[in-house]
């Protein structure tokens, strides 16, 4: 008998495989013997400074999922006001207090993708990026983000695989 | 290694790490070989070979053996432990007596008399068999028979899948009696099965998953997360039967009103399904018609239908949402969020899907 958490995760995996999402290049468990650790690859949105980048996300699922939210962080370095440049930690309400079982791993990843183009500079994890926005220096902000996208997220994805 | 203590063992390598020989347990001499994989002196990585009889005795006791290998510090200790283990197994083993020649002769003549085409499965020990039988409406039935070793002096035990608990088991002296008995019993349930088959064929049955012939209960999908549970009365299959409606309150209430209005129109000449369709003034959706529209009965939290033998029986009262949940799942979700209000054992919070007010109670 499969436990309820695994059963739901298997269903989510099947749903993703049935209808692959072009904005999410990958979404699957890292290894066959542990279904509680997943990896996702986010594609940067077109017409944003993140265009062309691929970011690897590490998803840790608690045994109490979906009552409690998954822990998601960026493995690929990313420059964003609400994402820690050092640890990849993400500040997003649905991953904390606003979580509900109606979210899936896929929809949570898509929410993170949406956060990229809709930053919230009032609750920053990356003060340098947030300060540029708060000062209204959109040009400076965009070129900073574009530089880090170029540096870390374009054709660099393989380097970060396997790190945890 | 003390050769006087184990006279039947001899070393087979120069280091004295591997041995072969006989272990004597209860007068039986069993050949075995004990081989060290590396020069490491712990017994963790040793290999044990043995004669077929030894293998048979130790079968199912691999864990105990492994434990002893890990605990023993040297070979002599393990050897004594192995001897103890084998003695214990031999004592607890009770060989079952073999059936006599008469057993096989009577079984053979029985099968000849009922006809071999009725035999579906005969297990290799010739102790259990399954007969297949068709009833007057050509429904297929299986009768499982186990034969005691002392047959024909003892009675056969027969068992079949029929909706009456007291009648499922039957004891008889021969196979012909078994067949006669069950043919009659199957005849008695024709009406019941006709009603149930009509439901299975023309509706989408949510529960039981794979109905058995003995199952009288059916949970039928109505669409919009609503369902109807009915139980056919085994003695009066065409009569009004027990029912229960599940789903969003706003959709269920009009159905209850229709039942109250039309219940007296129950027509005993129609099938139970047709009666319910007339009373509820609907046509039950079938599995095929429902596949296109995405009616989803799975729990919105665990994403499955069956959960520890319960099914989603709680649902959101918001018409546009109507999402269903298992009571256990919804309870643990509401318990986990701080905004939930608690009133005795009722939790009042928000639906995880539409944020409308939803409440549930702990299982009584």
UniProtKB/TrEMBL annotation, chain A:
SMART domains: UBCc
Domain UBC core: start-end pairs: 4-154
Protein name: UBC core domain-containing protein
Keywords: Ubl conjugation pathway
Organism: Diversispora epigaea
SUPFAM superfamilies named in the record: UBC-like
Entry keyword Transcription regulation: no
InterPro entries: Ub_conjugating_enzyme, UBC, UBQ-conjugating_enzyme/RWD
Xref: Pfam families: UQ_con
TrEMBL record, chain B:
InterPro entries tied to this protein: Fancl, FANCL_C, FANCL_d2, FANCL_d3, FANCL_d3_sf, FancL_WD-rpt_cont_dom, UBQ-conjugating_enzyme/RWD, Znf_RING
UniProt cross-references to Pfam families, sorted A to Z: FANCL_C, FANCL_d1, FANCL_d2, FANCL_d3
Keyword Zinc-finger: yes
A GO CC term attached to the entry: Fanconi anaemia nuclear complex
SUPFAM superfamilies registered for this protein in UniProt: RING/U-box
Domain annotation RING-type: ranges: 299-355
Gene Ontology MF terms: ubiquitin protein ligase activity; zinc ion binding
The entry's keywords: Metal-binding, Zinc, Zinc-finger
Signal peptide extent: none
SMART domains for this protein: FANCL_C (SM01197)
PROSITE patterns: ZF_RING_2 (PS50089)
GO BP annotation list: interstrand cross-link repair; protein monoubiquitination
Keyword Zinc-finger: yes
Protein name: RING-type domain-containing protein
């Amino acid at each position: 008998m499969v436990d309820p958490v695994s059963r739901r995760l298997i269903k989510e995996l099947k749903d993703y495989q049935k209808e692959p999402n072009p904005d999410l290049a990958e979404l699957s468990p890292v290894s066959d013997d542990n279904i509680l650790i997943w990896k996702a690859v986010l594609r940067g949105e077109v017409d944003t400074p993140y265009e062309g980048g691929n970011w690897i996300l590490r998803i840790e699922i608690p045994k109490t999922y979906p009552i409690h939210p998954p822990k998601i962080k960026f493995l690929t370095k990313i420059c964003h006001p609400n994402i820690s440049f050092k640890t990849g930690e993400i500040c997003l309400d649905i991953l904390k207090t606003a979580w509900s079982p109606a979210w899936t791993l896929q929809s949570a990843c898509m929410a993170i993708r949406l956060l990229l183009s809709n930053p919230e500079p009032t609750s920053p994890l990356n003060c340098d990026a947030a300060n540029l926005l708060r000062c209204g220096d959109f040009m400076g902000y965009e070129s900073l983000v574009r530089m880090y996208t170029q540096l870390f997220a374009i054709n660099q994805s393989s380097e970060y695989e396997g790190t945890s | 290694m003390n050769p006087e203590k184990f006279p039947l063992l001899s070393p087979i390598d120069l280091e004295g790490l591997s041995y072969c020989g006989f272990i004597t347990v209860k007068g039986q001499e069993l050949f075995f070989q004990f081989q060290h994989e590396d020069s490491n002196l712990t017994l963790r990585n040793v290999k044990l070979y043995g004669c077929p009889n030894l293998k048979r005795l130790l079968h199912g006791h691999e864990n105990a053996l492994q434990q002893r290998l890990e605990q023993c510090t040297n070979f002599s200790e393990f050897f004594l432990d192995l001897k103890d283990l084998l003695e214990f197994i031999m004592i607890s083993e009770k060989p079952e007596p073999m059936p006599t020649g008469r057993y096989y002769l009577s079984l053979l003549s029985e099968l000849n008399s009922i006809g071999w085409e009725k035999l579906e499965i005969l297990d290799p020990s010739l102790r259990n068999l399954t007969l297949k039988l068709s009833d007057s409406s050509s429904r297929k039935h299986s009768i499982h028979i186990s034969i005691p070793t002392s047959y024909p002096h003892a009675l056969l035990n027969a068992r079949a899948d029929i909706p009456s608990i007291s009648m499922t088991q039957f004891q008889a002296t021969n196979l012909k009696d078994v067949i006669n008995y069950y043919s009659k019993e199957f005849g008695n349930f024709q009406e019941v099965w006709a009603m149930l088959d009509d439901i299975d064929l023309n509706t989408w049955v949510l529960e039981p998953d794979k109905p058995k012939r003995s199952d009288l209960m059916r949970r039928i999908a109505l669409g919009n997360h609503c369902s109807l549970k009915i139980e056919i009365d085994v003695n009066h299959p065409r009569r009004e039967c027990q029912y229960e409606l599940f789903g969003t309150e706003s959709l269920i209430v009009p159905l209850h009103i229709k039942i109250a209005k039309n219940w007296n129109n129950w027509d005993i000449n129609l099938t139970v399904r047709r009666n319910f369709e007339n009373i509820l003034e609907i046509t039950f959706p079938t599995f095929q018609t429902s596949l296109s529209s995405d009616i989803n009965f799975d729990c919105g939290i665990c994403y499955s239908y069956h959960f520890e033998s319960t099914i989603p029986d709680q649902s959101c009262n918001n018409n546009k949402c109507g999402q269903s949940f298992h009571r256990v799942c919804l309870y643990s979700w509401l318990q986990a969020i701080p905004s939930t209000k608690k009133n005795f054992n009722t939790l009042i919070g928000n639906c995880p899907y539409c944020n409308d007010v939803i409440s549930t109670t702990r299982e009584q």
